[in-house]
Amino acid sequence: MVNPQDLKVVGRDHSRVDGEAKVTGRAIYAADIELPGIIYGKILRSPLAHARLVNIDARKAERVPGVFTVLTREDIGRFKHFGSAYKDQSIVAVEKVRYAGDPVAAVAAENEAIAEEALSLIKAQYEEIPAVTTIEEALEPGCPLVHELKPAEGNLYAHQYQVPERFKETNICYHYEYTKGNSDEAFKQADFIFEDTYTFPQVQHCSMEPHVTVANVEGDRITVWAATQDPFTLREHLAGIFSLPQSKVRVIVPFVGGAFGGKLSVKMEPITVALSWKARRPVKLVQSVEESFKTITRHPARIRLKSGVTRDGRLIGRECEIYLNTGAYADAGPRVAQKAAYRSIGPYRIPHLKILAYAVYTNTVPAGAFRGFGSVQVTWANESHTDIVAKKLGMDPLDFRLKNLLKKGEPYTPGDTPVDCSLREGLLRVAKTLAWGQKNNKRNTGKGLSCCIKDAGGSYKIASAAIKLAADGSILLLTGTVEIGQGAFTALSQVVAEELDVPIEQITVAQLDTDVTPYDVATSASRSTTVMGLCVQRAAWDVKKQLLRAASRAFNENVARLSMAKGKVYNSKSQALSYEEIVIRNFGSKWGEMVGFGSYQDKKDKRAALGALTVFWEVSWGGAEVEVDPETGAVKLLKYVSATDVGKAINPLNCTAQDEGAVVFGIGHTLFEEMSYSDGHLINPNLVDYHVPKFSDLPGQLHTDLVENRNGPGPYGSKGMGEGGILAIAPAITNAVADAIGVRMFSLPLTPERVWQGMKIHAGR
Amino acid sequence: MVNPQDLKVVGRDHSRVDGEAKVTGRAIYAADIELPGIIYGKILRSPLAHARLVNIDARKAERVPGVFTVLTREDIGRFKHFGSAYKDQSIVAVEKVRYAGDPVAAVAAENEAIAEEALSLIKAQYEEIPAVTTIEEALEPGCPLVHELKPAEGNLYAHQYQVPERFKETNICYHYEYTKGNSDEAFKQADFIFEDTYTFPQVQHCSMEPHVTVANVEGDRITVWAATQDPFTLREHLAGIFSLPQSKVRVIVPFVGGAFGGKLSVKMEPITVALSWKARRPVKLVQSVEESFKTITRHPARIRLKSGVTRDGRLIGRECEIYLNTGAYADAGPRVAQKAAYRSIGPYRIPHLKILAYAVYTNTVPAGAFRGFGSVQVTWANESHTDIVAKKLGMDPLDFRLKNLLKKGEPYTPGDTPVDCSLREGLLRVAKTLAWGQKNNKRNTGKGLSCCIKDAGGSYKIASAAIKLAADGSILLLTGTVEIGQGAFTALSQVVAEELDVPIEQITVAQLDTDVTPYDVATSASRSTTVMGLCVQRAAWDVKKQLLRAASRAFNENVARLSMAKGKVYNSKSQALSYEEIVIRNFGSKWGEMVGFGSYQDKKDKRAALGALTVFWEVSWGGAEVEVDPETGAVKLLKYVSATDVGKAINPLNCTAQDEGAVVFGIGHTLFEEMSYSDGHLINPNLVDYHVPKFSDLPGQLHTDLVENRNGPGPYGSKGMGEGGILAIAPAITNAVADAIGVRMFSLPLTPERVWQGMKIHAGR
Q: Is A16 helix (H, G, I), strand (E, B) or coil?
């Protein structure tokens, strides 16, 4: 282990190891993969939000010259249903379609144009059923059920994803409850009780690269090149669907153009594999942006919060009810509901809690994992509510927060990892940078703060890595972490360079291929720097140990008397052997390689609320200053301060970029983004009608502040980051808007129209 | 370790795990690789055997529409020379061309037709130099030198490849000498001395797949898909040539369509990489059959043998002088010379030995590794000579052989591994099957025997393998062995299936990729079953150990009380846990993988003649019965018996197929194959004019006999095989021809014309 004061590579800015390939356009993404005899897939999607599929006739489509195969429900009888939490999805629709966009059939043809033409010739006959598109409609007694039969098979590995008996004849697909103390009693004792309800829109990940898969089925062997964040889990899903041993399914991950949770678990890969299986050819399926909009989203949410407080400003009781619209299929919905509930507790000391979360099926695009994973919605509600409570008590929101914040070392919930950083310190840093308390002279301007915390590191923390040291001293790093744009390859390479004391240029990260890469459960939950970072560090230590042992033999001197520096091992007489020389001496030739291995496995803990200890707490603080146009309702972000606890920044440049990215994402759902439905149809599935932030939408001033106290469990005290920044922005801006114009907004995004309406109602009071 | 009597998978016929992909045409070879923006390479080859390259003008070629780049000597200044033993090759010719076919320039274009057109527009101006094409010409005093300067840089890793000072101004590029006792003294004591000289033709490997490379240079990263037998060594060569760390060079091995030594080391890969580097595009270079003929061959040889024998038939002294024509570049020539010398000792007890070997540069196609590696040539001479000596002594060649054969346990040379099988037993088996001693009634028929031994297993025996056990109990095998058609993937899978007691269908062999596959030095020297077999077995034991430890925790019972069978671990109460259940319990979820690792490293031994102990002795025996047409000289192979010591056949079906393949190969160079030159030009570089055996050329009866005594060091007592069978056939047939017509042939192949000439000379005596 390198001492903090001796760090050479870690803690310094380093340009991205994957940067050059990306900016020069030479990076190969899944859509670039070519194979001999490859053909092109296209999906026929349901035009209706909810219907019985009466008949499907593909004969005309099959006869189009250049069409290799048409896949319908007739073909998939032998294949299993699938899904992240429940096995509630089929490769194509069997009895029903459940949202406008649900895959009904697919074609593989010589080129995409022919495939499109063939799609238009497939005759699907539907019998429409009334649709439910909102949480409210889906909870109406007697409303249509999206899934008549509740998924019989729960997630095989997570028994908590079982829907209680009482919800079996409803659209509620999952329920989670967390209680601590007695909230009813607390409300009786409270001096004040405040309650309000928030709604959060449906938004999409908008990765630059949509969902893309190339599949090649050869006999009993499936090879898939996929834009995926969790290739090993995808392998497991595909093995399950197609009833094959996992060793017969190979997932290769080319460059990935953004993911943000949208490429977790299983998406369009099964349909691509089924096409290749039927056509006996490799098949490429490249989704359009519109199709990715119709594949996966963040959960729209309705959150009711009720807090009991004492006159002197102490939170004593909290009730929180969370409804998440998980769309037509559960995907990760149950897990998001669970996490949203757990994360709704927030950064404050509240002795009595009752939290109820529900995932609800509707006839809309499925919702699943998305940067923040349930936390974005609840944090927005929570930290808006915190301001309201403070204001109603007549307290400064900063003071109210400081009074109630959990201390470092205090338990978040009994049995889980204690809070691992000073919440107070970061909040004060943001307040200072924002010049909190100093009123801007301009009219219709205001400031808002927020403080956010979420458990991070993932629930199944199994990971491993390997390092191969070649006979010329150069290094290959094998890691199951996917480089999805977050900069993981650079940070992990820095850890290896640091531990083995070699220039980072000596290190190459091998392509991820489930056949050969050591296992990793997923690239998610801000876990890679911490969990994979530890694996990589341990693998480096393993190589170090082998180098020292080999050098000890070469020098004929005890390992304890040797030292390592700058890619060499020194003996007690200061004689040096380079790694190259050591490897050659070890093998007696230039032929041979040293291999180091490192792994990480979580300890289950029944006392922890979610069954395993939180790896670390991802903490962020936000401060916004806005100006609201009284004529149009347009919110202009004058200044934004984002502070994030990173423990120790492995690559400060990249941490800053990650945090800036999180801020921009947050600006999107705070001010602009919302998927809109009309008659069950998504009406803005494109980047013209759906407004992601443009450069002109960025704040006039943007401050990012990395808080470093080496308090993380990762290498050198690092922690994961990149999700924190996205949590803080919506409540900070919403609080700033309230400060600016005295109008409290309970629904996102804060579009001019919505804010203008708010002002009108407010004025009319 | 599984007990011999309990073997379930090993020792049983198993169809090839790579068979289905190959016969259905779905196997992807290097030529099938497609990449975005890929362009196609073609090589301009020298029309002259020896010339100074005065000028080269590529301007016209560069202007052809569709041409991306033309590579000439102007471009390669920064790249290093290369070669297997010496760095005597450049990517394209710099000052001289050294054989007709030597690469002079290369083009990469939109398609091959455009590339060909551009080649024709490159103007190369030569100044011809007299050429030497035979060993005799090349040794003539004052003859032209193929390389004026002897390679300054020897092979960095094998210091024995240095040419002695006295040969510096000659075409001798390497010399090796082995002596034992005092042969001059022995000849003085001998009752008889017999001496004769043999010549062996230049032959080509004729893999079904010619040499093919796809290269993609991206910044400082080279990726190569190559039909290669030693991807790790190729990586090392490319890193050297292009001055990159090995970690920046990635070699991926798709299916390979035959190799036989012709795809070892470095061939056309550097030129492909250089094209991709200059064009900034991926480049595919597919050689034609003609081009592969002009890339690498087996060494033509001239071998003089002199034996001193006693009246009662004991060999007491031997002198052997071997000249190998290594062509225009050394390639593996020095090593082949060394091995040919060592292997020329043969299976007999000869107290006094003097062996001299020379590798000689000529202006012909380079010669290098080829199944048998120097042994084919010397064994043919040796075992022809043995018959001559026996006949001249008036002894039955069988009796003479039996009298002089080394015994099991006797040293081959002092300090090396003793002979590990009974040479006598195999020879008697073959004699029996051939009905040795019973004269065929037909005229012009005859019988011949041979007995052959060669050191095997390779000189740098560094190998490693890994096994990944997924949470569903399925297995991935990572091995650096290349499946070149020899059946290695099947045999290695059988070892894993046996050790882990699972069906072979649960095992998948991962694609070989130097970035991620554990290191292996090469697929050569019949080493994979033994050396890689041990690695794979050890990796399986490692997984077993981990399974037992995890099961011990799960059962809460000592490992010593557990047992394994049929993919399950049993405790003392006969309760069972499947591997799947153990892995899941170990990781607490379906997420995780157990990884086992196994490696093998040779022990250097200075006492051994070649510096390292021979891993095992590859031994074969041949028996031929022929009929010679007195009118035409045509030799008809009536019957052939091939016996091979396999120690233990892992997959008998495949061992038999390997041996049959070796016999067919041997028939080729014995009866038909010979590369012919006229004016320095190879005149038959194609499969019409160059005669490889057809089905109609196969023997009327073919017996293959696997000798199994579990005497090998590989798993279950196995040994490598597949090279033995190719050694025995030429001398057995030649001896049978002599027996049939009384004419002794000293040159191969035994074409009708050559035999007819022999008969004419014989009749004229």
A: coil
Look at B593 and A519 and tell me if their CB atoms are within 8 Å: yes
Q: Can you say whether the dihedral through the CA atoms of B20, B23, B29, B34 is positive or negative?
A: negative
Q: pLDDT (tens digit, 9 = 90+) per residue, B150-172?
A: 654 444 334 456 677 788 889 99
- Phi and psi torsions of A626, nearest 5°: -125, 165
pTM of the model: 0.92
CA distance B234 to A263: 36
Q: What's the CA gap between A135 and A129, in Å, rounded?
A: 18
Percent of chain B residues past pLDDT 70, beyond the cut? 98
Mutate to test the interface with A, among B584, B591, B606 (most CBs of A within 10 A): B591
The answer, for B80 touching chain A at a CB cutoff of 8 Å, is no
Residues B249-293: tens digit of each pLDDT: 999 999 999 999 999 999 999 999 999 999 999 999 999 999 999
B-chain residues near A500 (CB < 8 A): none
Alpha helices in B289-366 (DSSP H): 289-293, 333-343
Q: List pLDDT tens digits, range B23-80.
A: 988 899 999 999 889 999 999 999 999 999 999 999 999 999 999 999 999 999 999 9
Tokens 């010679």 map to which residue? Answer: B628
Residue B606 structure tokens: 């200075």
Q: Is B116 exposed, middle or buried (0-12, 13-18, 19+ CB in 10 A)?
A: middle
At B710, the pLDDT band (50, 70, 90 cuts) reads very high
Name A417's Cβ contacts closer than 8 Å, sequence gap at least 6.
Answer: A455, A608, A613, A614, A615, A616, A617
B54's CB contacts (< 8 A; 6+ apart) are B125, B126, B127
B504 reaches A (C-beta below 8 A): no
Distance from CA of A500 to the nearest CA of B (A): 15
Strand order in the sheet with B123-128: B96-97, B51-57, B123-128
Q: Is B378 helix (H, G, I), strand (E, B) or coil?
A: helix
Sheet order of strands, B616-628 included: B445-456, B616-628, B635-645, B701-707
Domains of chain A and CATH, by start: 4-27+461-600 (3.30.365.10), 33-130+206-293 (3.90.1170.50)
Q: Is the pLDDT assigned to residue B4 strictly greater than 50?
A: yes
Q: Is A554 helix (H, G, I), strand (E, B) or coil?
A: helix
For residue B28, the chain A residues in CB contact (below 8 A) are 35-36
8 Å CB contact between B694 and B668? no
Task: Judge whether A540 and A467 are in contact, CB under 8 Å.
Answer: yes
Distance from the Cα of A508 to chain B's closest Cα (Å) equals 6
DSSP state letter for A434: T
Strands B96-97 and B51-57: antiparallel
| Calpha distance B4→A164 (Å, rounded) | 56
Cβ-defined contact of B157 to A590 (cutoff 8 Å): yes
User: What pLDDT is recorded for position A402?
Assistant: 98
Mean pLDDT of all residues in B411-436: 96
Residues 6+ apart with CB under 8 A from B734: B380, B384, B448, B670, B744, B745, B748, B750
According to DSSP H, which parts of B675-745 are helical?
724-741
Q: Which residues of chain A have pLDDT under 50?
A: 152-159
In a 3-state reduction of DSSP, which class is residue A542? helix
- Closest partner CB to B510 (pick from A28, A516, A589): A516
CB of B519 less than 8 A from some CB of A: yes
Alpha carbons B428 and B196: distance in angstroms, whole number: 27
Cβ-defined contact of B521 to A591 (cutoff 8 Å): yes
Residue B334, exposed/middle/buried by CB under 10 A (0-12, 13-18, 19+)?
Answer: buried
| B242: nearest Cα among B444, B108, B80, B13 | B80
